[in-house]
Amino acid sequence: MTDQPPRPTLRRAPAPPSAANSPAGVRRAPPPANKAPGNRAIPAGQTNTAAQGAGGTVRLNKRMAELGMASRREADEWIGKGWVKVDGKVAEMGMQVLPGVRIEIDKQAQGQQANQVTILLNKPIGIVSGQAEDGHEPAITLIQPQNRWAEDNARFFFHGSQLKSLVPAGRLDIDSTGLLVLTQDGRVARQLIGEDSVMEKEYLVRVVYTGVANSAAANSPAATYGGKVQQLSRIDDDDPVGTDVQSVFPPEKLKLLRHGLRLDDQALKPAKVEWQNPEQLRFVLTEGKKRQIRRMCELVGLRVVGLKRVRVGKVMLGNLPVGQWRYLQPHEKF
C-alpha cells in the first residue's frame, strides 16, 4: 500500500492590525488623500481643482490670470502666503469666485512682481530656445553681462538672480535666428503663449522654389527637407538679393500660404504673407505650430534657406546684434 503524502497545512493570513491590537509605537498608515477628478491628488491646502464651478464661478488663480494680475502659478504662490484678498477677506487656496469680486494683492506681491525682468535676445543659429539638447547650448547661457547690448539704455543692473525662473515665452528653432523673449513674468508668458493668445509674430523667410510639393510635411515636422537636417543661412538686412524666386512662384500658391493650408489635420489660421524682396517672404502669424513656416512652404514647393523673427507683438528686434540681449523697457508693451 502506497503511503499518502502529508496534506499541506493551510493558514489564514493575519488580519491587519487595528488601533486596539497594534503593537506599541506602531501606527497605521493614514487613509489615502481625497482624489480630484481624473484620480489626481488634490495639492496640499487646496480644496478644489476645477477651473469652473457651479453658478458661473471660476477658480481664483484662473480669474487672476484672466485679469492680468499674475500667472496661475504665481497666484497660487501668493494665495499660499496670504497675499491675496477677495472682497476684503484673505483668500483660500483653490477657492471659487464670481467674476465681479474685488481682488487685492499685498504690497509684497507687487514688489516681487516689479523686480521681475523680461529679456530680448537675438538668438543665433545653433542655439536652442529651452533646455539643452543634443549637445547644443540653451539660449539662457547667453544672458551674461558681457553679451548685453552696449546700447541698451534700460535702467536695470544685471544680477544672477534674474536668471532664476527666466524661461522662453515661445520657441525659435535651432536653425532659426532672431527675436526670442525670455521672461520671469508669468503675465508676459501668458500674453505671448497662453492658450488664448493671438499675438502677432513676424518673420523674414528666404526661400528657393523647387516646384515640388512635399505633402508629408503636412503631418510631420520631421518631414521638412525630405527628413534631412539642413543648416539654414543667416539673414542679414544688407544681404544681396540672388535668384528671382518671386517671378517664378505661382500667385495661387501665395494665396494658399495666406489661407487654405492644413497642418496636423487642422486648418491654419489666416496669415499675412508678402514678398519682401524677390527671394524673401515676410510672414505674420498668430499661431505657432512646430516648424510651421517651413512646413507651409514645403506644401507649396518652396524650401526655406533662412528664417529670422523680427517682431513679437509691438516689440521689434531692431538693431540688436546676433548673440546679444537687452532688457524690455518699462514703456514697451507687447
Could you characterize the architecture of this molecule?
This protein is α+β, with helices and mostly antiparallel strands and 334 residues long. It contains 6 helices and 18 strands. It has helices spanning 60-66, 72-80, 107-114, 186-193, 251-258, 292-299, and strands at residues 35-36, 40-41, 58-59, 84-86, 89-90, 96-97, 103-105, 118-123, 167-168, 177-183, 201-209, 262-263, 266-267, 272-277, 280-285, 302-312, 315-316, 325-327. Strands 8, 9, 10, 11, 14, 15, 16, 17 and 18 form a 9-stranded mixed sheet that branches. A hairpin with a 2-residue loop joins strand 12 (262-263) and strand 13. Helix 1 crosses helix 2. It is globular. It starts with 34 loop residues before the first strand and ends in a 7-residue tail after the last strand. The model is unreliable at 15-47 (pLDDT under 50).
Keywords:
alpha+beta, three-stranded antiparallel sheet
Largest sheet: 9 strands, mixed
Strand content: 15-25%
- Poorly predicted runs are 15-47
Structural class: alpha+beta
Number of DSSP helices? 6
Helix content: 10-25%
The ordered string of helix (H) and strand (E) elements is EEEHHEEEEHEEEHEHEEEEHEEE
Mean residue pLDDT: 84
What shape does the CA trace take? globular
Radius of gyration: 28 Å
> How many beta-strand runs?
18
- From the N-terminal CA to the C-terminal CA, the straight-line distance is 97 Å
Lay out the secondary structure.
Elements: E1 35-36, E2 40-41, E3 58-59, H1 60-66, H2 72-80, E4 84-86, E5 89-90, E6 96-97, E7 103-105, H3 107-114, E8 118-123, E9 167-168, E10 177-183, H4 186-193, E11 201-209, H5 251-258, E12 262-263, E13 266-267, E14 272-277, E15 280-285, H6 292-299, E16 302-312, E17 315-316, E18 325-327
Parallel strand pairs: 10-16
Antiparallel strand pairs: 1-2, 3-6, 4-5, 4-7, 8-10, 8-18, 9-10, 11-15, 11-16, 12-13, 14-15, 16-17
